[in-house]
Structures are given as C-alpha cells and as structure tokens.
C-alpha cells in the first residue's frame, strides 16, 4: 500500500502532536493556520464509511482533545474541523483524516463552502436518509 499517512506513521517521520495506539495527530506540511493539525487513525481506513466505530470514536476523541489544546495553547477563539470521505468529496488522501484548524476572529480565513451543490435528488433528502437509518 502506498498511503502517505501510513508511511508517516510507520516511519515515525511526521511532526507529531500526539501518538496513540488507535489515533495520532501531526502537523501538515502546508498548514492553513498556526496550529493546524491532522488527526488520523493509526491503521489504514480509507474513509468514514470503512472505519470501524471503535476506531472512529478514538479518532474523534483525539480531535476534541486537539481542538481544546489548540484553543488553550494558541488563544484561538474557535476551530474548524474538516473532513472529506469518498471520491465525490474532494478527499485528497484516501486515509481517514480530520483537519483541526484553529481560528481567530480576525484571521481572514474562510473554510466554509461559498456555493451550493448543483446535484438534485428526488423527494425529501432528510426523509430518505432517516429511512435508510431505520
């Protein structure tokens, strides 16, 4: 497997923020903001659809810890937590990952989508999802 995140984990060459048996966190090569951190499972799972619930829980718990530490250590007023899963989502690395991006009111960064999807579905999308969950 030629996964960049698996290589970093295997070789230990990332700029580590936290390392655990199920989840780890490191600074990306091109951070969007000071303190921008990637949180990933230590085992390879391509996306949220493939990740077992226990691993996803450990990753999101670390996301929460990193977000709190960034707020406290960097005096951030908030964070953006970003993730993409699957080819239609613009996922750049096929290994589940969450970006924790510290934010400040005057930072000039926008991570919110500027437009709306042109895709249309038949019927009530929320009702269709609720039915699929049942």
From TrEMBL:
The record's section on SUPFAM superfamilies has: HIT-like (SSF54197)
One Pfam assignment? HIT
Domain HIT: where? 4-110
Which InterPro entries does UniProt cross-reference here?
Answer: Histidine_triad_CS, Histidine_triad_HIT, HIT-like, HIT-like_sf
Tell me which Gene3D superfamilies the record gives.
HIT-like
Per the annotation, the residue ranges of the short sequence motif Histidine triad motif are: 95-99
Name-wise, this protein is HIT domain-containing protein
Q: Which organism is it from?
A: Streptomyces erythrochromogenes
């Amino acid at each position: 497997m030629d996964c960049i995140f698996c290589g970093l984990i295997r070789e230990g060459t990332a700029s580590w923020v936290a390392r655990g048996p199920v989840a780890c966190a490191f600074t990306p090569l091109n951070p969007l903001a000071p303190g921008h951190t990637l949180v990933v499972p230590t085992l390879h799972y391509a996306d949220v659809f493939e990740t077992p619930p226990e691993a996803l829980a450990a990753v999101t718990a670390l996301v929460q810890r990193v977000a709190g530490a960034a707020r406290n250590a960097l005096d951030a007023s908030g964070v953006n937590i970003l993730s993409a899963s699957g080819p239609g989502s613009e996922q750049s690395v096929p290994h589940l990952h969450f970006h924790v991006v510290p934010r400040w009111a005057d930072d000039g960064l926008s991570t919110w989508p500027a437009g709306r999807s042109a895709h249309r579905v038949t019927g009530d999308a929320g009702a269709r999802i609720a039915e699929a969950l049942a």
